Amino acid sequence: LADLNRDSNDKYWRKMKVQVEEVKGQELYTNFHSMSITRDKICQVVKKWHTLIEAFVQAKTLDGYLLRCFAIGFTQRTKRQVKATCYAKGSQKKLIRKKMMEIMVAEINKSTLKELTKKFIQESIGA
Question: Could you say which residues of the chain have pLDDT below 70?
Answer without folding.
Answer: 1-10, 126-127
